[in-house]
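Collaborator request, handled under Task 6.
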Amino acid sequence: MGRVGILTEKPSAARNFAAALGGMTGTFDGTDYVIVNARGHLLGLKDPSAMVPAPLSERYKSWDLEHLPWNAADFRWEREVRRKVSGKKLVTDPDAKSLLDELESTLSTCETICNAADLDPTGEGSLLGWEIVEYLGLEGKKLERMEFLDETPASLRKAFSARRSVISIKDEGDYRKADFRDKWDMLSMQFTRLATKVSSSGTVLRNGRLKSAMVVIVGDGLDAHKSYVKKPFYENRFRDENGVTYTDPDIDRFVDKGDVPGGLESSPVVHDGTTRKKTAPPKLMDLAGLSSLLSKKSFAAKDVLATYQRMYEAQVVSYPRTEDKFISEEQFNELLPLVDTIAAVVGVDPGVLSHRTPRKSHIKSGGAHGANRPGPNVPQSLADVAEKFGELGKEIYELLARNYLTMLAPDYEYDQHRGHVEKYPSFVGSLNVPAVLGWKGVFVAEDDEDEQDETTSGATALGTIAKPFVHEGFPTRPPHPTMGWLMKQLEKRSVGTGATRTSTYAEVTNNATGKALMIEQRGKITLSAIGELNHRILPGTHIGDLTITEQVFEQMAQVEAGTSAAAEFLALVEDLVRHDLEKMKTNASRLPAELKERMAKAGVTRPPVENITLPPALHFTHGDAVVTTAKRVFCGYRFTDAEVAALLAGQIIEITAISPKSGKPFTCKGTLEAAVTEKGHPFVGFKPQFEERPPRTDLVSGVWKDKKVEFKGRGWGANAHWAGKDFTEQELAKLLAGETIEFEATSKDGKKYTAKGALAVSTHNGYKNFGFTLKFDDRAPGTKTRRRKATR
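Structure tokens returned to the collaborator:
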């Protein structure tokens, strides 16, 4: 049998395979192999306009509502090398391209290619591997799939020996499932275009299954919190001398305190019994839960993701983007010998960790990476973690380690004392008294605390006499949305995974460009002006319905099983878009005036783009595209009617516009001209014309510190307080040699002084300057100590 190429998902997986099989190349169980790795998705679907016939390309580039919805049957569904933003351009990721070349070079020499990417419920790993095989044109080789529950050596060796043959990539159900989801999510770009155009805000309103769900949940939660009206109610209750309250669950409540019936009297308390109760340790933490706790300490989700990734690469913590809520028995056994060391790092008494056998609630089979937990490389101390990964890294490790260690501690136990009021037996009360601290002595997350499990009075038993009183209560106010609250809402509705929720949350709260949908402050969330606008646009839409993800996942299951074709479900998106367009139009017509004012104050709203309609003679044809309009605004300047007429007549006009970079006005002349952008988009627009500056005669060149340089050597200082200085050939030679020179200069008040200086590089107002620089040890009389550079 020829060599098998094992394609793993990432470098860490390749290292784990190598450790299990005996090296990156070699022979295992009689099979020759070589291990290679991707780095996540190296490929992605092309831009919609690049996957349709050429005559339709402009339609699929356009954001105009008349070109929506799309017809899914128009797409060729092709993939390209992953792209990234460089400056303001979207370019092919050179690292991804280089890695694909390496993969092709190695895998093309193999007789068999085995997809050893991760297993996950969405089929993402299967897609990641097979799309590379297809893109490289290697699907004609013998194909295999390797399936493993975790990356322990035993599991990987077992998976290697149990590789299964793959007849056709298209026959792989998990590949079909993930491929369908990828295509559905690309079609969902239409909802962003709908909301953006309908809102007329001039800014992009990002929408998608998870983004929209977050906006809806937070927006509705804020509405409920803000609309809460604190209206009291009154009812009869009893309280004993130990502070225990006795209530009747069926008693009437009254709006006015005076309406509460009286006549109740004090009564003995009857003790109904005591029951010992237990609670098991909390479930293992995912990235969403971890990030939620850290948000209360003002750590941003994006920083949590970045720091956790660095810690994972050092194997201090486990794989970040796991979907598992439990670990396997192998993973449990792998960390068991390290438990005492981990406990010492985070200040937990190892003696408390007496439950060192697997708990069924935490240890299960069927996962892949296992829940988030400490890694095999245990740090020496929390100070060591802080030194290597910062204060955030220290917080991550302590939370993760303590959460993991709780399952090794005994159950929390408490005694529940129950009783009732003798004369009024419908009034009952209870008191919970801690008995065995158990796991609560290791770690209690704030969100996990249950006030009903604890007594707040310090009492250890029910009292003997209960006295009546009129209780004033209030309906519970809906909580202000927090990151933790949002993550729980999403989890209840099965929207996204812990890692996906965290990364999407990081995206929608990232306000680096002023386009965040949400604003977070110490864990509390509000909607930005853009987010609020989006929230008001979404009611009644499909993309804003929290069941849309459930529907998509049901469709994914049918595509995986082969009972339905992906094309059938992709075609349904067209009707969803058509429906949402009408709903968004209706919602947009009802936007409150105060929201529009808020948008304007936030600097979000921009005036709608005005176009000049071009006469047929000025239409610009480029390939299959025909440009029939030109923008009426150039760098903030709007052409007058007379100027529009002059431009259409081919005349040159002069305007004063504002530089988008410096914000300063500039004057230029120009005409209308047809051109094509760097991305290949044709357009007709105002083309400024600037007078050519005469060549400079004041510059000299030479070699300074082994580098070719150019600097002002004639008329130096002409713009300062002294006359221009022409350096002599001898002075230039000394300057280029790195020496300091002296010459006589005149100050602004006419006094003579000796100026000293040398060539130097410095920074001024963010710009690097090179040229002759004065040394102010012997500065001119009456001058201030400041530097003036010859050139910029």
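The cover message to the collaborator said: "The first helix runs from residue 11 to 21. The mean pLDDT is 86. Please let us know whether this matches your experimental observations."
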